[in-house]
Amino acid sequence: MKIDPNSSADLSVQIAQAIKDAIISGELIVDERLPSEAELSDHFQVSRPTVREALKRLAAQSLIRTQRGASGGAFVNRLSFEDAYAQQVTTSTLLLSMNEVSFDTACEARYALERACAPLSAERRSADHLATMRAEIFRQGQPGLTDVAFCASDVAFHRALVDGARNPVLSYQLAGAVEAMQPLMNMITFTARDRAVITGLHTRIADAIEAGDGGAAAAGLQDLECETRKLASDVFAARAQR
Amino acid sequence: MKIDPNSSADLSVQIAQAIKDAIISGELIVDERLPSEAELSDHFQVSRPTVREALKRLAAQSLIRTQRGASGGAFVNRLSFEDAYAQQVTTSTLLLSMNEVSFDTACEARYALERACAPLSAERRSADHLATMRAEIFRQGQPGLTDVAFCASDVAFHRALVDGARNPVLSYQLAGAVEAMQPLMNMITFTARDRAVITGLHTRIADAIEAGDGGAAAAGLQDLECETRKLASDVFAARAQR
DNA sequence: TGACATTTAAAAGTCTGACATTTAGAATCT
DNA sequence: AGATTCTAAATGTCAGACTTTTAAATGTCA
């Protein structure tokens, strides 16, 4: 682990990069303890606060975790699926909210990816996944449900569908696509009629999954995508006119 | 922006979270300047180094950028697709390398997602995307190409395929799935025969894309997935036996 | 001997205050 | 008016001290 004393980049950035590289290259392995802050500041010939800023950068990315007390220190963190999932959702959400991505673009990406999960989910889903999907469909039919709660239930339904593929990598990748849409979906007001159409499609998808028919599930998702885009365009058109 | 003085969590973590929440909620908008470090330390009643650690955490996630000098400070950063893309690749790569994800699982996820792009790419790809695919296929046929270079070219081919869908959200989502596989692919040694089979499939896929036949492209990807998994299992079997 | 309480030291977390460096903008000069 | 210099504000860095947490070593007693 070395830094370039001639570089114009901030020291804390350089140090963070050096440690990150060491982790990625395998020089530092999971759960290995990094030198203490005092040792690091000595090694890199910088002050302790500078080292700390570098460590905080890494901690923010879940690359390391710190522990206080004797035999404490900074440890290389095993990036868990949960952590990666959370990061993925945050990044995707911010990306969509900050870049004027059109609803259609986001929607298209989401459903394209989700359709890819359908055949796997139809083949492998557990009874639990199916039960979750049914339960969410039931919830979506309850009167008095707010639009936000309806959207949240929609996300839960789709998560169950994706998780049904029993591929953690796929679930992780889809997390962003599905959840980042929620703020966009929350801008839509769903009439009772809209909800009926959507839950009808959900039922059709769940039935297909239950029957092990991935093609039918994908077709249902296709229709759901059309429906969602139509709904959104109506809402945005009405809003633009006002 | 408030912090809970009774919380046991580290102050810098709390402050980072408070600012992050303000950004996500829209209280702070893109390119808005945060208060100076001195003002923040005054506001939160903590010292400047503590505030700085919080800011470094946010900078590590590309949520803010800092500028030195007069009228400098920390600004809410517009998360660009490039930044998000880079984060996505790093996270995915670490996730796979640290969690003993089987080759099959990663491979399945990657090709399932990629097949989802095929119809869109067949419909929308520009001449440029197609040219890139052809160029990479040509490179893959060159003798004397190292295995690592072959894998890199493979990634470039698939990126062109994905980008052909002309949906930046999709490209971003796929970035992790495709690039994170590279270290795993690099563990495979490709015989001349293997390469011929792969480039043959690549050609078939490119032809289908050129013809606008998304179904055929997806089928080609399906076969490529099978081929890749077979190759990998052979390599791992041979390695286990030794 | 073994279980429990106490001490101790190491390490992260935090604070204070200072100085260095960068940079935009104001002031000045030609 | 335009170029140059000055200035002040802000981040970047440093040094050293103190606080809090935590595990391990030590000591004590049944």
Tell me about this structure:
The structure is a homodimer of 242-residue chains. Chain A has 242 residues and is mostly helical. Chain A has two domains: 11-76, Winged helix-like DNA-binding domain superfamily/Winged helix DNA-binding domain (Arc Repressor Mutant, subunit A); 81-241, Four Helix Bundle (Hemerythrin (Met), subunit A). The first copy, chain A, is built from eleven helices and two strands; from the N terminus they run αααββαααααααα. A two-stranded antiparallel ribbon of chain A has the order 1-2. In chain A, a hairpin with a 5-residue loop joins strand 1 (64-67) and strand 2. In chain A, helix 5 packs across helix 7 and helix 6 packs antiparallel against helix 10. The longest helix of chain A is centred in the last third of the chain and has 28 residues, at 214-241. The N and C termini of chain A lie far apart (60 Å). In chain A, 42% of the residues are buried. The mean pLDDT of chain A is 94. Chains A and B meet through helix 1, helix 3, helix 4, helix 5 and helix 8 of A and helix 1, helix 3, helix 4, helix 5 and helix 8 of B. Chains A, B: InterPro entries: GntR_C, TF_FadR/GntR_C, Tscrpt_reg_HTH_GntR, WH-like_DNA-bd_sf, WH_DNA-bd_sf. Chains A, B: Pfam families: FCD (PF07729), GntR (PF00392). Chains A, B: Residues 9-79 form the HTH gntR-type domain.
